[in-house]
Design brief:
- With 112 residues, the protein is mainly α.
- The protein has helices at residues 5-32, 37-40, 55-63, 66-97, 103-111.
Length: 112
């Protein structure tokens, strides 16, 4: 089934509007990271900061021990990923090469 050009234009316009709608809070959050504290909590919010402050990132990094937090996150992530690769490889091997009763039902449960 091919769509007409008018339908495609309408569909892509709608999808673009939805994408902008859902991305707007993230864009606002990104620009807020460059604002001063007064600008960030102002009642009439503005999208762009009056003065761009890159020092906010250095201040945030120095306020907490983010280096340690990053290392902890990396260790947990790498350990979890390694465990998943090992266990999933073993499960895939058993489903591929071994025949046992209830194999299809168990496979469907694993996939679900």
């Amino acid at each position: 089934m091919s769509m007409s050009k008018k339908t495609k234009v309408l569909l892509y316009t709608l999808l673009t509007i939805m994408a902008v709608y859902f991305l707007a809070p993230f864009i606002y959050m990104l620009f807020t990271t460059f604002k001063t504290e007064a600008e960030a909590i102002a009642y009439q919010p503005k999208l762009f900061p009056e003065t761009w402050r890159l020092s906010n990132f250095a201040d945030a990094w120095g306020a907490q021990d983010f280096g340690r937090y990053f290392l902890n996150s990396m260790l947990v992530t790498l350990g979890t990923t390694a465990g998943q690769i090992i266990s999933c490889s073993l499960a895939a091997f058993s489903f591929s090469f071994l025949e046992f009763k209830g194999k299809n039902v168990l496979f469907m449960l694993v996939m679900a």
